[in-house]
Amino acid sequence: MSVKVGFVSLGCPKNLMNTERMLSILVNNGYELVAEDIDADVVVINTCAFIESAKKEAIDNILDVAWLKEHRSLKGIVVTGCLPERYREEILQELPEINCILGTGSVDCIAQAVQAAYEGRPYQAFGDIDSAMFFGERVVTTPDHFAYLQISEGCDNFCSYCVIPSIRGRFRSRPFSEILDEARDLAQLGVKELCLIAQDTTRYGEDLYGAYSLDSLLWELSEIEGIEWIRILYGYPDRVTDGLIDAIANCDKVVKYLDIPIQHINNEILRSMNRRDTREEIEAVVRKLRENVPGIILRTTVIVGFPGETPAQFEELRAFLKETKFERLGVFKYSREEGTPAYDFPNQVSEKTKEKRYNILMEQQERIHNDFNASFVGKTLKVLCEGYDQVAESFFGRSYADAFDIDGKVYFSSSRDVREGEFVNVKINEVIDYDLVGKAIFD
To answer: Under CATH, what is the fold of the domain 146-374?
Structure first.
């Protein structure tokens, strides 16, 4: 009888890629995957440990699964990913419920870890994070019409608040041929939208080809039959080249959407964060994108309450965001992480002040977002159907303006059945909260 394995995948899409590869390894080694933890002999929890809230979520999940070990038939718990990589010395002492641990450099050891946990043996592995596997066979866990495609791993940016280089290793790109082969395989499975991910997508290819090569990759991916949308996440403003802007503007399959985290706009704070941009450079790239790619959706993230952030510097950020009107915005309260330079910076900002500044930006962005959504009323959008909502009695999907599992939805009625993964034209009639509502239009 095969060992039954349950999986919990936490954190970002890049972590999900590791989960999908581990799932494939287990299936190829004869293990049985189960959807419910209560049915499992062993549960694997693939963790994130980027910031404090992610660590808390990971620990809460470990403790929840540990209840099954104590009260049901669960034999073992394997914890993988960022949490054990970051806290390899402490994790088993602090969480004795765990049987086995794998760092981010040891994804390929998952079968050994699961078998050890099933047999009640300890097991741990921490491979070299600078040469860790981040590609290969995978069990795609996203809907049939959508998949992430990882184009590089690791990061060399060393922002002063960030632990990623110490968890994920140095930056390294995948060769064109590997990425294109995987994209063709995904297209054969029925994937319509590819979402390109990395710690820094805009740096893709520099280490392999001596130049930023994301634009060339986009053109090559666009030749693959069956793929209709290509979306870019996790870019850096200073690496948005003229060639990349041209590809976004003129390649029909590349959606007019770009995620470029800026983190702040005040030059002093940016230097303290060890970011490479200045306010002037950020403004220039935003202006160039909007001038050359009409209708482009720009997503960004910012951090409030970074050490030393004064009221005047926060006000500069707030005013910039109000003026620039990013279509999509994520706001994060600075998380003080041990092992980063910023942890020891003077003038740490109080949690109360962080919360206040966070709320100010979120309330401002809500007004910006509402105005932006209202601009779609009366227009017709191409929508990728993702299913039917029984409660709303409506089909739903996403337009080019909405990234999977991040942004809003488009709800729509239809005179005929619409399949999941089918593209339809939807005339937008109204806005409800963060979502659009309309009716499918057929020729």
So the answer is: pyruvate-formate lyase- activating enzyme (3.80.30)
